[in-house]
UniProtKB/TrEMBL annotation:
Record key words, sorted: Hydrolase
Domain AB hydrolase-1: 55-300
The protein, known as: Alpha/beta hydrolase
Keyword Hydrolase found: yes
A GO molecular function held by the record: monoacylglycerol lipase activity
Family annotation (Pfam families): Abhydrolase_1
PANTHER family from the UniProt entry: MONOACYLGLYCEROL LIPASE (PTHR43798), MONOACYLGLYCEROL LIPASE ABHD6 (PTHR43798:SF5)
Species this chain originates from: Streptomyces albiflavescens
GO-annotated cellular components: membrane
UniProt keyword Hydrolase present: yes
Length: 329
């Protein structure tokens, strides 16, 4: 889209609703209708006018709620929105059933173009890290900075603990897994996910655990839950096999935006050894290594992530002071 073109008008914007979806204090949730997709957007009112926009993109099986711990810590720095990718959180499946990394990236781009919010400070975790890498590579005009938390970029030798996720991409495996685990309670499933994603699951409070169980119960009741998981897993595996200019590592090399990379030493899904390769691939990168963190550092150590992002803004000259905002910059 050229600089002289206006962004397309949002097809529909539904007033904020809570329903069965948890909305933390200070947040609101709204649905945005776009051609072929409807996206649920979680946001916080900006601390003041004129703050630059930020968009957060979750990982496989996650939702915009994954960013609820970090967003309040950045209230004075950015105007925060987090998206539920199609088929996840409170967003229904895409009309075309496209759950590829490119399909998810297209949804993010479509929203940013329609909302006219770009360029944004773009955040991505896991699958969302692959999606936002692709967005930053193909649409540099939409991205101010890129912050990647355990991005799902291709590994030659994936960790054994990551194999079950990859196996979901195999036809029939999701149906078999559903059959074999039909007696599992939501509590058992959540404990398993937390054991896999957190460096220390013991830091999860009882309240946070109950909320995660309630959210999983809600999503397991959705008729498309396993389809979205399976097809997104398949889309990620397929993205790993792409070569040439469409390969994720090649696209990482094309990213122009200053990039903050955050890796956890106890990550069981994305190899800690990939951190230095990523730091070499992204041309303007900073690396934060958290030895005790797992796969979701923004949930485990939100204050540390917020501090690192603040330093990124200071280092790159992107930090907007209150006096500058007051002057209308």
């Amino acid at each position: 889209m050229s600089s002289t073109e206006l962004p397309p008008v949002l097809a529909t914007t539904v007033t904020p609703r809570v329903g069965a979806v948890r909305v933390a204090a200070g947040e609101r949730l709204r649905s945005v209708g776009l051609p072929g997709i409807t996206l649920s957007i979680r946001s916080r009112p900006p601390a003041r006018e004129g703050l630059p926009p930020a968009l957060y993109v979750h990982g496989l099986g996650g939702s915009s709620q994954n960013w609820s711990g970090l967003m309040p810590l950045l209230d004075g720095l950015v105007d925060s929105e987090a998206v539920d990718l199609p088929g996840f959180g409170d967003s229904p499946p895409p009309d075309d059933g496209n759950y590829s990394v490119t399909g998810h990236a297209r949804a993010v781009i479509r929203y940013l173009d329609a909302a006219g919010r770009g360029p944004v400070h773009l955040f991505g975790n896991s699958l969302g890290g692959a999606v936002t890498t692709r967005v930053a590579a193909v649409r540099p005009d939409l991205v101010r900075t890129l912050t990647l938390v355990s991005p799902a970029l291709p590994e030659i030798r994936a960790q054994r603990t990551a194999w079950p996720t990859a196996l979901l991409a195999v036809p029939g495996v999701a149906r078999l897994f559903t059959s074999l685990t039909k007696e599992w309670s939501a509590e058992q499933r959540v404990r398993g996910v937390m054991a896999l994603c957190y460096g220390d699951p013991g830091i999860v409070t009882p309240e946070a655990f109950r909320e995660a169980v309630e959210e999983l119960e809600r999503r397991l009741a959705l008729p498309y839950f396993w389809d979205a998981m399976t097809r997104s897993s398949r889309g990620l595996v397929n993205a790993y096999t792409l070569g040439g200019q469409h390969g994720l590592w090649r696209q990482a090399e094309r990213v122009l935006a200053p990039t903050l990379l955050i890796y956890g030493g106890r990550d069981q899904l994305v190899g800690y050894r990939m951190a230095h390769r990523a730091a070499r691939a992204f041309r303007d990168s900073r690396l934060l290594s958290l030895p005790e963190a797992g796969h979701v550092a923004m949930m485990e150590y939100p204050e540390t992530v917020a501090t690192a992002f603040h330093e990124l803004l200071t280092d790159t000259g992107e930090l907007v002071s209150s006096s500058a905002v007051g002057a209308g910059s």
